[in-house]
Amino acid sequence: MSEHGYEAGRLNLPFVGISTFGKSNYVADWDTIEADVAVLGAPFDFGTQWRPGARFGPRAVREASTLFSFGHAGAYDHEDDATYLGADDVTIVDLGDADIIHTKTDESHANIEFGVKKILDAGALPVTIGGDHSINIPCINAFAEDCAQNGPLHVVQIDAHLDFVDTRHGVTNGHGNPMRRAIEKDYVSGMTQLGIRNVSSTAKDGYDDARARGSDILSVRQVRKLGCDAVLARIPEGVRYYVTIDIDAFCPSIAPGTGTPSHGGFLYYDVLEVLQGLAQRGDVVGIDLVEVAPAYDPSESTQILAAQLLLNFIGFIFHARKSST
Q: Which helix or strand (DSSP H or E) is residue 75 part of?
């Protein structure tokens, strides 16, 4: 007991201290990463076609993540009868943000790619927080050497929009292009695109092209009609997954803080159960979560949703890895 009659050490409540992701340790020197998971901010939103503001996404998601930083013994889930994110199960560090150079897409993307590659070189799982969806392009680019050694990626996209535009008025690296840029990689073996719905930025020929190149496209209604198990059964088993989550995949009734909201989206458990199934079905080797634009959600529920989703997903991944050994 301390002199005040309390336990020794800091209580360290969520609103105390510096807002790293989940209050994890900050690592400024990217050559000294020693962790299972490294979080990188990618505050780039020059690729947006309508409302900007996702450059503030990493900062908002980090702050929201402190809500879930209580406790030191992991997070017990009574439904699964499992404890996730225990200190013996997973070590998370926060690398801060890739440097963004205003008006310079190529240079900013290169800085993001550099950060993700440093994480991969350290043997950690990269979790990149955007930023708009164009930041997926450098994230996937960073896997070239990793895939040459360890095998290809199957990309799982959770999104309202297909993001499969090839080029429009010379733009090839905006937030409508990332899935097209990904499928062009010889180390991307296929793609599952979930939540795609209603009016979208991709024309019919884009959908035809995506399917011809090996993409499986399901809307929110189709996912719900099939059910989680049937959706997972359509995704290759025992492979390496890269998961990219656009927050506009969710209904704006629970996630209004995004630049391109689309009604009729997923609710929390629609997505969480798919992510848990993926963690058990194969090896998740990379994650990005994008398009959180906090200025459009004064309730802050969008960034809380993003943080809660990421922390649960990380917990699922490392619990599954531990269970399989």
A: strand 75-77
What is the residue extent of each domain of the chain?
A: 25-324
Q: Amino acid letter at 226?
A: L
DSSP state of 249: G
Digits of tens for pLDDT over the chain (325 positions)? 444 555 667 788 899 999 999 999 999 999 999 999 999 999 999 999 999 999 999 999 999 999 998 666 789 999 999 999 988 889 999 999 999 999 999 999 999 999 999 999 999 999 999 999 999 999 999 999 999 999 999 999 999 999 999 999 999 999 999 999 999 999 999 999 999 998 766 788 889 999 999 999 999 999 999 999 999 999 999 999 999 999 999 999 999 999 999 999 999 999 999 999 999 999 999 999 999 999 999 999 999 999 999 999 999 999 999 988 7
Angle between helices 268-281 and 301-324 (to 10 degrees): 20
Q: What is the CATH number of domain 25-324?
A: 3.40.800.10
- Global confidence as pTM: 0.96
